[in-house]
TrEMBL record:
UniProt subunit comment: Component of the precatalytic spliceosome (spliceosome B complex). Component of the U4/U6-U5 tri-snRNP complex, a building block of the precatalytic spliceosome (spliceosome B complex). The U4/U6-U5 tri-snRNP complex is composed of the U4, U6 and U5 snRNAs and at least PRPF3, PRPF4, PRPF6, PRPF8, PRPF31, SNRNP200, TXNL4A, SNRNP40, SNRPB, SNRPD1, SNRPD2, SNRPD3, SNRPE, SNRPF, SNRPG, DDX23, CD2BP2, PPIH, SNU13, EFTUD2, SART1 and USP39, plus LSM2, LSM3, LSM4, LSM5, LSM6, LSM7 and LSM8.
Naturally occurring in which organism (per UniProt): Trachymyrmex cornetzi
Compartmental location: Cytoplasm; Nucleus
Transmembrane segments: none
Protein name as annotated: U6 snRNA-associated Sm-like protein LSm6
Family note: Belongs to the snRNP Sm proteins family. SmF/LSm6 subfamily.
CC annotations in GO: Lsm2-8 complex; nucleolus; P-body; sno(s)RNA-containing ribonucleoprotein complex; spliceosomal complex; U4/U6 x U5 tri-snRNP complex; U6 snRNP
Molecular functions per Gene Ontology: RNA binding
Function: Plays a role in pre-mRNA splicing as component of the U4/U6-U5 tri-snRNP complex that is involved in spliceosome assembly, and as component of the precatalytic spliceosome (spliceosome B complex). The heptameric LSM2-8 complex binds specifically to the 3'-terminal U-tract of U6 snRNA. Component of LSm protein complexes, which are involved in RNA processing and may function in a chaperone-like manner, facilitating the efficient association of RNA processing factors with their substrates. Plays a role in pre-mRNA splicing as a core component of the spliceosomal U1, U2, U4 and U5 small nuclear ribonucleoproteins (snRNPs), the building blocks of the spliceosome.
Keywords: Cytoplasm, mRNA processing, mRNA splicing, Nucleus, Ribonucleoprotein, RNA-binding, rRNA processing, Spliceosome, tRNA processing
The UniProt record lists the keyword Ribonucleoprotein: yes
Superkingdom, taxonomy of origin: Eukaryota
Example of a GO biological process term: tRNA processing
Domain Sm span(s) in chain numbering: 33-105
């Protein structure tokens, strides 16, 4: 684990006056950022978009380093229309375009 500290200067031109702000922030490695994202979404509702355009929505049960995904309470959407419902679903990682969070179901 490592963090990089980056200093930036922000210059604002407001109402003919120039203001400079110095700030710093920390950058994480991409691997750490991805790991934190996965920890945050585990057990939460997600949308998994496949390369084919099909969406699967469900509760994230498991995900591995190859983006293989296990979902619970899974729904399949094609062109935005609900096509089918599954209890549990396994999605092979090489088919995944992206994964994103969605609002919790009531």
């Amino acid at each position: 684990m490592y963090e990089l500290r980056r200093e930036v200067k922000i210059v604002l031109n407001l109402d003919d006056s120039r203001k400079e702000i110095n700030c710093s922030y920390y950058l994480q490695s991409r691997k750490e950022a991805l790991s934190q994202f996965i920890q945050q979404i585990h057990g939460r509702p997600v949308v998994v978009k496949l390369n084919s355009g099909v969406d699967y929505r469900g509760v994230l049960a498991c995900i591995d380093g190859y983006m293989n995904i296990a979902l619970e309470q899974t729904e399949e959407y094609v062109n935005g229309q609900l096509k089918d419902k599954y209890g549990d679903a396994f999605i092979r990682g090489n088919n995944v375009l992206y994964i994103s969070t969605q609002k919790r179901r009531n």
